[in-house]
Amino acid sequence: MDSYSSSSPPMGASPSPEALMEQIQAQLAEAYAKELIETMREKCFDKCITKPGSSLSSGESSCVSRCVDRYLEATGIISRSLFSQQRH
Amino acid sequence: MDPSAANNPELLRFLNEEEQRVMMNEAVAKLTSVCWDKCLTSAPGSKFSPSEYSCLTHCAKRYADMSMVIIRSTQSKK
């Protein structure tokens, strides 16, 4: 890990456990967001940009926007289906 | 206070919880990717069609069922 910028301790002192936990959570959240965005790029390009033209058409743009909404919705559906206690 | 995890039970508990969370997120991410490919046959609409929705709600559980079949069948073929 690089420098603990969130709560700059005095030179030579270790970061507090709280600062460390905060930093770990922030980095994990960032990594998760990056991976989700990369996945959506692949899925939405595949579904929406079937034949790349000289620019992005308005149809393609609105498809991508719907794609992001649906993918996030799908993530919620799968998450509830895996981790909720309800019977299906 | 010593921040090293070995001497800090709170930090250790935190790290275990975060590890669990990461593993759960990864399982959801992977299954969402698989189920999206399986269930969405056309371009995304402003909502899921009834068949797409039904497919998605069943997909994860059926994948888990299938995993069990694979494990059992590889065990019986020793």
Topology:
The complex is a heterodimer of chains A (88) and B (78).
Chain A (H helix, E strand, L loop, with lengths): L16 H32 L9 H26 L5
Chain B lengths: L8 H31 L10 H26 L3
InterPro entries (chain A): Tim10-like (IPR004217), Tim10-like_dom_sf (IPR035427)
GO cellular component, one term (chain A): mitochondrial intermembrane space chaperone complex
Membrane topology (chain A): Peripheral membrane protein
Question: What does this molecule look like?
Answer:
- Chain A: It is found in: Mitochondrion inner membrane; Mitochondrion intermembrane space.
- Chain A is an all-alpha fold and 88 residues long.
- Chain A is 66% helix and 0% strand.
- In chain A, helix 1 crosses helix 2.
- The model of chain A has no long low-confidence stretch (mean pLDDT 88).
- Chain B is 73% helix and 0% strand.
- The termini of chain B are far apart.
- The model of chain B has no long low-confidence stretch (mean pLDDT 92).
- The longest helix of chain B has 31 residues.
- Classes of the chains: A mainly alpha (88), B mainly alpha (78).
Describe the structure concisely.
The complex is a heterodimer of chains A (88) and B (78). Chain A has 88 residues and is an all-alpha fold.
Write out key terms for the chains shown.
heterodimer, A: mainly alpha, Helix Hairpins, 2 helices, elongated, B: 78 residues, mainly alpha, membrane (chain B)
Low-confidence stretches of chain B are none
Mean pLDDT of chain A: 88
Quaternary arrangement of the chains shown? heterodimer
Largest beta-sheet characterization of chain B: none
So what's the CATH class of chain B?
Mainly Alpha
Task: Say how many strands of chain A there are.
Answer: 0
What shape does the CA trace of chain B take?
Answer: flat
Count of helix runs of chain B: 2
Low-confidence stretches of chain A: none
